[in-house]
């Protein structure tokens, strides 16, 4: 098997990815890593190169990729982040952003009603279209008459395949979220693809919500959802909201997947968090749970389950970083999780 390519990235990325790699090594499943630790903001600021063609080819030749975080306050434009993360998503056609969210411990939920705290759902987000394609531009920039246009792109292929993936991921049901009452053209396309998919899956419970209603429902009763499928921008927002209901962004994992080729780019949901980088308090749980997604996708289901159980046990015991109620450092939190592996 080819190695797993690893881009630790910026800020807290190297800190949390280090704990994830150590955890995977602890499992003894014989995976090898190709670490591209030169892909970071320092090189971009020095050379203007975000991800070289050679780097891209190394990632593409691997069996999967693990990314820490991309972003640095010294970089004022979006070209660096787009040049790394969005290039990998778009050029490898990683059309599914898969974000599972499960409450790790009751104390982490901000919801008052204990019967509605047990978040256990998946956000399936379309990952290569929508508002993030970069289609648009400006007219008369930096003037009082400036016009800025960002176009949302939806294709039948892109919409239908991400909805199909959502049904394949469902345990009990799928809820499609859009804003078709206001966004007419893209909304009509999503609705047509949705109706076709529903007809093909008569045994799966289905529902539809507008994005504002979905956000309210996630707050009032997140246990009502199994799988939510939606577009790029709505999925970005709703998955962050859902992560906060389950313990915060520091605990959230995600995968960018091409379900046809089988390739995946795996990344914790949190960013580079430059304000806490180097302080040893970054939460490694998101990165460790992301590595569990990665090894599960490679066929190591038992080991992935063991990692998740170890994370839950460490959090329940309060052996975790301050953001989730503990007092441990990043390294000690990772060690506490590995101590729970059975």
Please describe what this structure looks like.
By secondary structure, this protein is an alpha/beta fold. The chain folds into 2 domains: 1-95 and 253-342, Isopropylmalate Dehydrogenase, CATH 3.40.718; 110-245, Isopropylmalate Dehydrogenase. 40% of the residues lie in helices and 18% in strands. The chain has 11 helices and 12 strands. It has helices at 13-27, 41-47, 53-60, 79-91, 156-169, 184-200, 211-220, 232-245, 285-297, 301-316, 330-339; strands spanning 4-9, 33-35, 64-69, 96-102, 120-126, 136-139, 147-150, 173-178, 205-210, 227-230, 253-257, 264-268. A 10-stranded mixed beta sheet has the order 2-1-3-12-11-4-5-10-8-9, sandwiched between helices. A two-stranded antiparallel sheet has the order 6-7. Strand 11 and strand 12 form a beta hairpin. Helix 5 (156-169) crosses helix 6. The two termini are 25 Å apart.
In short:
This protein is an alpha/beta fold. It has helices at 13-27, 41-47, 53-60, 79-91, 156-169, 184-200, 211-220, 232-245, 285-297, 301-316, 330-339; strands spanning 4-9, 33-35, 64-69, 96-102, 120-126, 136-139, 147-150, 173-178, 205-210, 227-230, 253-257, 264-268. The chain has a ten-stranded mixed β-sheet, sandwiched between helices.
Chart the SSEs and their pairings.
Elements: E1 4-9, H1 13-27, E2 33-35, H2 41-47, H3 53-60, E3 64-69, H4 79-91, E4 96-102, E5 120-126, E6 136-139, E7 147-150, H5 156-169, E8 173-178, H6 184-200, E9 205-210, H7 211-220, E10 227-230, H8 232-245, E11 253-257, E12 264-268, H9 285-297, H10 301-316, H11 330-339
Parallel strand pairs: 1-2, 1-3, 3-12, 5-10, 8-9, 8-10
Antiparallel strand pairs: 4-5, 4-11, 6-7, 11-12
């Amino acid at each position: 098997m080819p190695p797993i390519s690893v881009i630790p990235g910026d800020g807290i990325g190297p800190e949390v990815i280090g704990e994830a790699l150590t955890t995977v090594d602890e499992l003894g499943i014989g995976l090898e890593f190709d670490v591209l630790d030169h892909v970071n903001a320092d090189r971009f600021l020095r050379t203007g190169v975000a991800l070289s063609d050679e780097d891209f080819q190394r990632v593409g030749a691997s069996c999967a990729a693990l990314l820490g975080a991309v972003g640095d306050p010294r970089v004022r434009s979006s070209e660096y982040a787009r040049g790394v993360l969005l290039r990998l998503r778009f050029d490898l056609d990683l059309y599914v952003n898969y974000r599972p969210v499960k409450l790790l411990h009751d104390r982490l939920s901000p919801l008052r009603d204990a019967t509605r705290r047990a978040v256990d759902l998946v956000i399936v987000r379309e990952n290569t279209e929508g508002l993030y394609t970069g289609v648009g531009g400006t007219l008369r920039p930096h003037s009082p008459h400036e016009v800025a246009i960002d176009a949302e792109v939806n294709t039948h292929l892109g919409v239908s395949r991400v909805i199909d993936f959502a049904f394949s991921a469902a345990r009990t049901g799928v809820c499609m979220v859009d804003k078709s009452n206001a966004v007419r053209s893209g909304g009509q396309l999503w609705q047509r693809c949705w109706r076709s998919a529903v007809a093909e899956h008569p045994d799966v419970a289905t529902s539809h919500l507008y994005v504002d209603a979905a956000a309210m429902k996630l707050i009032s009763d997140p246990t009502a959802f199994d799988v939510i499928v939606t577009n790029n921008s709505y999925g970005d927002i709703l998955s962050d909201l859902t992560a906060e209901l389950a313990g915060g962004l520091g605990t959230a994992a995600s995968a960018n997947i091409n379900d046809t080729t089988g390739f995946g780019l795996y990344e914790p949901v949190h960013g580079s968090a430059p304000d806490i980088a180097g302080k040893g308090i970054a939460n490694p749980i998101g990165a460790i749970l992301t590595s569990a997604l990665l090894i599960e996708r490679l066929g190591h289901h038992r080991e992935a389950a063991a990692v998740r159980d170890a994370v839950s046990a460490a959090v329940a015991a309060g052996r975790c970083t301050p953001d989730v109620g503990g007092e441990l450092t990043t390294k000690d939190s990772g060690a506490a999780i590995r101590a729970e592996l059975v």
